[in-house]
Amino acid sequence: MQGQLKKLHATLNSPVEYALPLNDQLFPLNPLVGKAVRLVYTGNIICVHCNAPTKKSFSQGYCYRCFISLAQCDLCIMKPEICHFAAGTCRELIWAEQFCFQPHFVYLANSSGIKVGITRQSQIPTRWIDQGAVQALPVF
């Protein structure tokens, strides 16, 4: 999964199905609900992009070298309104073409209260599931 975020997977079913990527496989988490789970920290931190060992991780699991050099670590991945691809200053044109200027939606989500958010079209409904929303509505 080099170059991809290794994050929790959520699938919209009833109930929502969760799986954790471990190595090259997805480990189903729903069967563990209500059971005791023991996690052991090995002390090893591996970059989610280049797989290099690192003493500290940045921006959800990158080594410092990847964090400062990859477009996917720019703030515009979280704030599309500050994207600088159109200005010609993006560091990775191929990555930017795949992720920048994608359709986004403003939405209302009901989790612990009503929230206004923005997400890429490809992240609906995953973003809402991640937020624990019981209801969501694209509005723009």
How does this structure look, described?
This protein is α+β, with helices and mostly antiparallel strands. It has a domain at 103-140. It contains three helices and six strands. The protein has a three-stranded antiparallel β-sheet with strand order 1-2-3. A three-stranded antiparallel β-sheet has the order 5-4-6, with no helix packed on it. A hairpin with a 3-residue loop joins β4 (104-110) and β5 (114-120). It is flat, with a radius of gyration of 17 Å. It starts with 8 loop residues before the first strand and ends with a strand.
Q: What are the defining features of this structure?
A:
single chain, 140 residues, alpha+beta, three-stranded antiparallel beta sheet, flat
Derived from helix and strand composition plus strand pairing, the structural class reads alpha+beta
Order of adjacent strands in the largest pleated sheet: 1-2-3
Question: Mean of residue pLDDT?
Answer: 87
Tell me, what's the shape? flat
**Annotation field: number of helices:** 3
Strand coverage percent: 15-25%
Cα-to-Cα separation, first versus last residue: 33 Å
Q: How would a crystallographer describe the biggest sheet?
A: 3 strands, antiparallel
Number of strand elements: 6
Helices and strands, in N-to-C order? EEEHHEEHE
Radius of gyration using CA atoms only: 17 Å
User: What is the percent of helical residues?
Assistant: 10-25%
**Stretches with pLDDT under 50, minimum 5 residues:** 1-5
